[in-house]
Design brief:
By secondary structure, the protein is of the alpha/beta class. It contains 9 helices and 17 strands. The strands form 4 sheets. Strands 3, 4, 5, 6, 7, 16 and 17 form a 7-stranded mixed sheet that branches. α3 packs across α4 and α3 packs across α8. The protein is globular. The structure holds NADP nicotinamide-adenine-dinucleotide phosphate (NAP). The site of NADP nicotinamide-adenine-dinucleotide phosphate (NAP) has 32 residues, from α1, α3, α4 and α7. NADP nicotinamide-adenine-dinucleotide phosphate binds next to α1, α3, α4 and α7.
């Protein structure tokens, strides 16, 4: 059987290594993609340093590359099509390897105006944004997008951590569907950009009175309760987001937290500590609903399974409604070196950027 190189984690905080894994031949509804670009995300760090959710194995979820083999039922793509996507289930779908073999619904065609290295900044965050908004905040995202704003377009929605990749794309998605009252937290140097993307107001999460500032703005000219009905926490940090959010919620607020809950963040000196439950991490008022979000569940929604990556993601990127995100290209002499460097940069902390790197050494 043919094999190809993949970047794997073997134990928490052990150096990454290269393993030769089977090159999977396409089933009828699948495509095989040569992965030219990938992006290292916090989830890779959670897995590599914390062994989160998975048994150690091939890392990576977002890929961009070229179709080199097609199943017999694949209609909309051809050999040579430039594609991108978010794969996360078995070994054959993870992105830190020379080839992925994925069903058509985990794959979209890259708009001709967008470089693969830019397209690869989007798939995992787009899936997270659409899943969080629909499944956790219970805001429908009808497709195609209706030409009029939704009836509840003025609902206040807070994105905590809007400079994160997931937060920025969620803001873009909500604004594109017509929501006009999205509040956001981020470091001050991102405020102008987030306002340009459509945030109604942006707050510095490091201000000691950040929660009071948000509540004052939310209550200005309004008497409804709760003051902020919907909150998406894109950070999941017990001290950095969940506890402050708990202070601004009231009976009736719905809070969605991107998992994992980070009890202690990874650093060069310490192993991380995570939890997959939000319960017990902060004191919420009675009547507040709090839910942890796992994007991997989005395939349970048949409509999104069929259309999110193959249709919605390319279409929204093509018209500039979503992405691409700011990015830094991580260089290195080998596949392993690029993967290790990107993970080390992620461990040191990044601000509003995706770390992208070449896998095959071809493309662009
Ligand atoms: N459960 C899921 O399905 C799912 C899916 C995607 C992501 N996630 C999780 O969500 C988190 C974010 O992922 P990502 O890829 O979007 O991250 P990212 O792009 O790497 O986010 C980095 C940003 O986080 C912001 N940040 C850090 N601490 C903050 C705080 N206390 N309050 C507000 N903002 C803060 C920083 O903002 P400033 O630059 O403004 O300081 C920084 O720019 C990760 O833990 C990830 O694992 C979960």
């Amino acid at each position: 059987m043919a094999t190809h190189p993949a970047v794997v984690t073997t134990a928490p905080r052990a150096p990454l290594s290269i393993r030769h894994v089977p090159t999977v031949v396409c089933a009828a509804d699948e495509v095989r993609v040569r992965v030219d670009w990938t992006a290292t995300t916090p989830f890779d760090l959670h897995q590599a340093d914390g062994g989160l959710v998975v048994t150690h194995g091939v890392l990576g979820s977002s890929y961009a590359g070229v179709v080199i083999e097609l199943g017999v039922d694949v209609r909309d793509l051809s050999i040579g099509s430039k594609v991108f996507g978010f794969g996360f289930r078995g070994q054959q779908e993870h992105a830190f390897q020379l080839f992925v073999t994925v069903p058509m619904y985990l794959c979209g065609e890259i708009p001709s105006t967008i470089a693969p290295s830019a397209a690869v900044t989007i798939p995992d965050s787009f899936a997270t944004a659409v899943h969080s908004v629909t499944a956790a905040l219970h805001i429908p995202l009808p497709w195609p997008v209706p030409g009029h704003p939704p009836a509840n377009a003025d609902t206040l929605i807070l994105i905590w951590g809007a400079a994160s990749s997931a937060g920025t794309v969620t803001l873009q998605v909500l604004v594109h569907w017509g929501y006009r009252n999205v509040l956001a937290t981020a470091s001050p140097h991102h405020h102008v950009r987030l306002r340009e993307l459509g945030a109604a107001a942006v707050f510095d999460y490091r201000d000691t009175d950040c929660v009071e500032q948000i509540l004052e703005t939310a209550r200005m000219g309004r008497s409804e309760a709760p003051s902020i009905p919907l909150v998406l926490d894109c950070i999941g940090s017990v001290t950095g987001s969940i506890r402050p959010i708990a202070r601004l919620t009231e009976a009736g607020t719905r809070v969605a937290v991107l998992l994992p809950v980070v009890i202690r963040a990874p650093s060069t000196d310490e192993l991380p500590e995570y939890a997959m439950e939000v319960a017990g991490k902060a004191v919420f008022a009675e009547g507040v609903s709090v839910e942890g979000v796992r994007t991997h569940a989005y395939l349970e929604n048949g409509e999104l399974k069929a259309r999110m990556q193959s249709e919605m993601m390319p279409a929204l990127m093509a018209v500039g409604a979503v992405g691409p995100l700011s990015s830094t290209v991580v260089e290195g002499a080998s596949l392993l070196e690029r993967a290790e460097r990107a993970l080390a940069i992620m461990r040191d902390g990044i601000s509003r950027q995706r770390l992208v790197w070449q896998v095959s050494g071809e493309g662009e």
